[in-house]
Amino acid sequence: MQVLSFVAPGVHVFDSEIVIEMAKNMDDKLSKVVKDYPTRYAGLVALALQNPDEAADELERSVKDLGLKGACITFLTKGEYPDAKKYRVVFNRSHSLGVPIYLHPRAPSPAMIKPYPDYPFMDSPMLGLAAETSLSAMRLICSGLFDEYPNLKIVLGHLGETIPFWLTRIDASYERSPLVEMLDKPPSQYFKDNFVVSTSGMFSEPALKYTISVWGSDKILFALDYPMEDL
């Protein structure tokens, strides 16, 4: 079985006037594929976060009426990261429905892009995508999102966007920071409780073994990153 989603470039890059109907159209088409081949495919909802309230309603419609299994968003919508308070309604709905949200990479934000173009392709999967997606995941944790929604599940691709390799250092810095008074748990515990990771695009046996040792094999999903990587 393969999980399908519309994410490249996704609806996040378009103006808000058109994205709601665009997302609904994509979700309807994806649902038809899943219903035609129910033992082969599952689907993730395309959400237009430019309109958070309508995005939350579309998530509920797609899960309850269309049979899709979660949502796929990128870490940036019109220059904003998903920890912004206005997006809480979407995470609240995901939490209530008991479905995960896949946090997918995209090009670095306008605020972060300047150092990358000096060298070809550095803003790509070579470095920029993982750097920005891991930053977005950390922002979700530091915002207190998972204290508010303790059963919310987030999926990170590419063996966790480097985060498994940083957990010890992240926690050590957390213990010396004001976040100790702001969060209920250290960051590593949120990653272990609220995140699962996939193997997409990271076909390295040493990296996989290390991630299993940190995350546990029950929190790791098989994925390909098609068509971006050699299968």
Characterise this structure.
There is one protein chain. This protein is an alpha/beta fold and 231 residues long. The protein has one domain (2-221): Metal-dependent hydrolases (TIM Barrel). It is built from 10 helices and 8 strands. It has helices at 16-36, 52-64, 88-97, 128-142, 145-148, 158-161, 167-175, 179-182, 187-194, 205-215; strands spanning 2-4, 41-43, 45-46, 71-74, 101-104, 154-156, 195-198, 220-221. The strands form 2 sheets. Strands 3-4-5-6-7-8 form a 6-stranded parallel sheet. It has a two-stranded parallel sheet with strand order 1-2. Strand 4, helix 3 (88-97) and strand 5 (101-104) form a beta-alpha-beta unit. Helix 1 packs parallel to helix 2 (52-64) and helix 2 packs parallel to helix 3 (88-97). The radius of gyration is 17 Å and the shape is globular. The two termini are 16 Å apart.
Summarize the structure.
Helix content is 43%, strand content 11%.
